[in-house]
Amino acid sequence: NRYITIKTQVDGEPKESDFELKTSALSLSLDSGSNDMIVKNLYVSIDPYQINRMKSHSSSQKAIGFAAAITPGEAIDAYGVAKVVASANPEFEKDDLVVGLITWGDYSLLKGGNYMLRKFDPMGFPLSYQVGILGFSGLTAYGGFFKVCKPKKGEKVFVSAASGSVGNLVGQYAKLFGCYVVGCAGSKEKVALLKEKLGFDDAFNYKEESDLKSALKRYFPDGIDIYFDNVGAEMLEAAVANMNTFGRVAVCGVISEYTDAAKRAAPDMLDVVYKRITIQGFLAADHMNVFSDFISTTTDHLRTGKLYAIEDVSNGLESFPSAFIGLFRGHNTGKKIVKVADE
Ligand code: NDP
């Protein structure tokens, strides 16, 4: 079995030389009663938060509260779609399609039954949707927008990293709900996608703006009601400066701070007090109670063509490092996925 691992902890920007491909023997004979399973990995989700699990212990302590640190030399675990090859777990059979925690490898050996895995019905959609629009990216966007931002129709919404996996869906849900939506992204192609295909009211390239506060003032002359934050740092400060009274900021992630320990948002707290702004962090897993609403709403919109699934797929096990590194360089548009193998 081939798999990808980190050579040592990664602090700062990840680079190709931080990763290596290893091989290990994998026996198909599992001890009965062990609940062990072997699955063939098909589609693996590539997620920014993994960088926080790769950091050296002291700098990652806060970040790894909900997921263990990644050990150099061991296969990196990640959410993905796989097919059961061998199972000593009575709940799963050979050839079952499953989604859950697998690995950056050709195959995953899942030990002891204490793994997050479930069978699923593709409902006529591509299998890759399970790691993006119908998986955690979608739930993050849906739960974060509807439950944390608590939108009202007509409110003005700003989304950062808006062409990314979570951001593009937040903008699409917000438009379908009846909000005014502006997104920012890092290239003119991404800006065009938001405005021309995904129905955003407006969008801009944040890399072309020298003063983010005045840029947001231009796009929101009457202020921002909701800011869905994917990036943190200066963008969060600029958004808070432009929030309306009783505005809500959902802090989904702070990708610009993940690779730069010196960068931390310092929003003006006087704005927060006098404008009574709510700033709330959240995790997708907080919103499992809306999972079935999320799936039924999202699949309905997909079937009627009101919602687009934007995917960015790299092929083959060797592409894991570049796919992951690309997240921090803005190389991806939409959900970044590695397709490891055909079904
Ligand atoms: P994306 O698909 O959005 O990929 C990352 C994008 O972030 C890049 O394409 C790039 O786009 C942008 N980016 C990278 N570096 C910077 C930077 N320094 N400043 C500004 N933008 C940057 O990833 P996801 O949609 O998977 O994740 C988006 C955010 O949501 C992340 O912060 C992630 O950690 C968080 N998240 C949180 C979850 C939760 O449960 N709370 C669950 C899933 C994700 P561009 O070209 O526009 O710069």
UniProtKB/TrEMBL annotation:
<dbReference type="InterPro" id="IPR041694">
    <property type="entry name" value="ADH_N_2"/>
</dbReference>
<dbReference type="InterPro" id="IPR045010">
    <property type="entry name" value="MDR_fam"/>
</dbReference>
<dbReference type="Pfam" id="PF00107">
    <property type="entry name" value="ADH_zinc_N"/>
</dbReference>
<dbReference type="Pfam" id="PF16884">
    <property type="entry name" value="ADH_N_2"/>
</dbReference>
<dbReference type="GO" id="GO:0016628">
    <property type="term" value="F:oxidoreductase activity, acting on the CH-CH group of donors, NAD or NADP as acceptor"/>
</dbReference>
<dbReference type="InterPro" id="IPR013149">
    <property type="entry name" value="ADH-like_C"/>
</dbReference>
<protein>
    <recommendedName>
        <fullName>Enoyl reductase (ER) domain-containing protein</fullName>
    </recommendedName>
</protein>
<feature type="domain" description="Enoyl reductase (ER)">
    <location>
        <begin position="15"/>
        <end position="338"/>
    </location>
</feature>
<keyword id="KW-0560">Oxidoreductase</keyword>
<dbReference type="InterPro" id="IPR020843">
    <property type="entry name" value="ER"/>
</dbReference>
<dbReference type="InterPro" id="IPR011032">
    <property type="entry name" value="GroES-like_sf"/>
</dbReference>
<dbReference type="InterPro" id="IPR036291">
    <property type="entry name" value="NAD(P)-bd_dom_sf"/>
</dbReference>
